[in-house]
């Protein structure tokens, strides 16, 4: 009996960690990462995680078309400027800027930031030098940034030309951040509700992270009360066609800048909406551990399904002749593969990756 108790005690001690991040790191390294490496999970879905991904502070991603107030929103939240800030009516932010806490104010170029093992940006190297030249880390000695980090993004323009001229996979980078941040804020200008093709694709890149999305209808003091009701209705109608979820995304209405309100008839509404949004941001550090556990469980479920799919595809391939034809047949019939794997191993269909994206990866 005593021997059994001693054995049980040692087993329990092995499961005790100083904090949640330590436990998740050990579990990922020993259990999940070997599976991801064996079945090339990182090439199909999300790059392999590092220790910095688990130790990182909660992050907020800001997305929106140009001149919707993304950079101004950050300044309003921090109550100070940050290195490299540029604000104007024209498209001013032409790069991804990670605004983070530092002992002194400085800007780290992208290539220096991704090789820093203490930061969670190592896997961004996959997007190449064209992106590295458009990425930087802005370090600020600010109380807010002791608890959260904020990602500012380039303003989204309309037209296919803008997507081509970027020189990097904008939607892929948005997807990379979406899987790692705690909150995604989509900003809209009350005067510019049209959603461009690139912005539509960027919102589509958030697929699978809909619970993180919050909407901000900014510069709402520039319209009257009656106009605001119409603008709000038009915004919800436009978003309903893009964000394909049964739940309605939370929309915060206000003007997030230091200027006096142009129309103050909705002052009470703006103040309450601002308090609600800032309260949610303040709660991020407290819920960060739960989010990391949830994201790792979701990743493990996807990795499990991915391993079964890849294993089935490998078993169906011929040993010698006709490999190319069989590969094309399997890719075309991926829906049937999904159904077979789901029924054979009792896997929920909701855990399977997006079929079209998976087909494109298999072709590559």
Summarize the structure.
This protein has 16 helices and eight strands.
List keywords for this structure.
globular; 12% strand; disordered N terminus; 16 helices; 8 strands; alpha/beta; eight-stranded mixed beta sheet; 364 residues
Tell me what the structure shows.
The protein is an alpha/beta fold. It contains 16 helices and eight strands. Strands 3-4-2-5-1-6-7-8 form an eight-stranded mixed sheet. Mean pLDDT is 87; it is low at 1-13. The protein is 49% helix and 12% strand. The chain has helices at 2-14, 20-38, 41-44, 51-55, 70-78, 110-114, 128-132, 160-166, 170-178, 197-204, 225-240, 267-282, 284-316, 323-332, 334-345, 355-363; strands spanning 59-64, 96-101, 106-109, 135-140, 149-152, 183-189, 213-218, 251-253. It starts with a helix and ends with a helix.
- Give the beta-strand count: 8
What is the spatial order of strands in the main beta sheet?
Answer: 3-4-2-5-1-6-7-8
> Would you tell me the overall average pLDDT?
87
**Total DSSP helices:** 16
Note the quaternary state here.
single chain
Q: Beta-strand level of the residues, as a percent range?
A: 5-15%
- Unreliable spans are 1-13
- Nearest-angstrom radius of gyration? 23 Å
**What series of H and E elements makes up the topology?**
HHHHEHEEHHEEHHEHEHEHHHHH
**Helix/strand-derived class?**
alpha/beta
Distance between the termini: 59 Å
* Main β-sheet description: 8 strands, mixed
Shape: globular
Fraction of residues in H or I helices: 40-55%
